């Protein structure tokens, strides 16, 4: 574990005395929340939908939205203005006026120059693109930085990650169905078949959240669904949730080869927490598929789990290898930007409300384990042990920092 339990700290009398200044304040803190327009390549989502802005404004907070921040998710400037947001033309002005910035992707390029001392930054971290220079910059500014993908609920789940994975799993089947069509160079078959014509066979690698939602969606289309995983317990749970309407198998070499050879569609959804996705399907397995079949590697942002996969883009999403269509776009939820933005809003707004209610980010981190687990930079210190190990940087336990008043 990266963080020791606060409960254990409370038993130490020395730390208990330090806890006193951290009691909740009588008055709530008015937040000045900034929502910049995303500038990362092909990122169409926005961190807060107008409905989320309205909730925050109704709670007494000020929300500043960069003009056109929501346009690619089909949220118009007028909607934000009607929700109570102030529209800002210049991103530098937006950063300068706000004590909390919430965005989808981490700041990069010019955005780093806009950050101000002691600001709160809530965004994805995107570990694959993180650099020591980025972390040092946040530390120099004494920014409190919280990563979406690390925020954990009391039940141990990661709500933002789960919602994006649900979207990814469902989208993977939608995409596969489209590329099976003759017009896209596919086999010219339907996922669900019709009376007298059997359905397509969809093979899903991985029984996690992406695999579960891919299976649910494929079943909805009427496809024959086979799910393979390396953990028997995950397969058993998925069979239970889906009322045994799927076929499951352990992801052994024998079963993988049989399943891939028979597949019309292969969905790559196999992941390892904090590590690169395991390579499940080899080049020769892909070669055994019938021409016109479709592979959707839905875990490309973790490196992909199919040997023939390589990253593609929303503007140029597919290529062929061994006659099989490959769709390997990282950040698939960006292509359903409106749905994904609502999902982000529903998870983020309660956390923002909580920061305002307790009076400060320090008190919010003390009281909320989810926010605490999401914090990776706090008061000039790196507080995520995995990042410290990855980049060879010093690490401090965030609970000890908060308790000591540093």
- In angstroms, what separates the terminal alpha carbons? 22 Å
The name CATH uses for the topology of the largest domain is Rossmann fold
Describe the global form: globular
Helix content estimate: 25-40%
| Rg, nearest Å | 23 Å
Helical run tally: 17
**CATH second-level architecture of the largest domain:** 3-Layer(aba) Sandwich
GO biological process, one term: L-alanine catabolic process
Domain Alanine dehydrogenase/pyridine nucleotide transhydrogenase N-terminal: 34-168
Pfam families: AlaDh_PNT_C, AlaDh_PNT_N
Region (Disordered): 1-30
Give structural notes.
This protein is of the alpha/beta class and 406 residues long. It has 2 domains: 6-150 and 336-404, Rossmann fold (3-Layer(aba) Sandwich), CATH 3.40.50; 167-327, Rossmann fold. 38% of the residues lie in helices and 15% in strands. The chain is built from 17 helices and 15 strands. The chain has helices at 6-10, 13-18, 50-58, 77-82, 91-97, 110-114, 132-140, 159-179, 209-221, 232-241, 253-262, 283-287, 337-358, 361-367, 369-374, 385-391, 398-404; strands at residues 32-35, 62-66, 86-88, 100-102, 120-123, 144-147, 201-205, 224-229, 247-250, 265-268, 294-297, 318-321, 324-327, 375-378, 381-382. The strands form 2 sheets. The chain has an 8-stranded mixed β-sheet with strand order 3-2-1-4-5-6-14-15, with helices on both faces. Helix 8 (159-179) packs parallel to helix 9, helix 8 runs antiparallel to helix 13 (337-358) and helix 13 (337-358) crosses helix 14 (361-367). The model is unreliable at 1-27 (pLDDT under 50). GO terms for molecular function: alanine dehydrogenase activity. It comes from Longimonas halophila. Keywords: Oxidoreductase. Residues 1-30 are annotated as: Disordered. Residues 34-168 form the Alanine dehydrogenase/pyridine nucleotide transhydrogenase N-terminal domain.
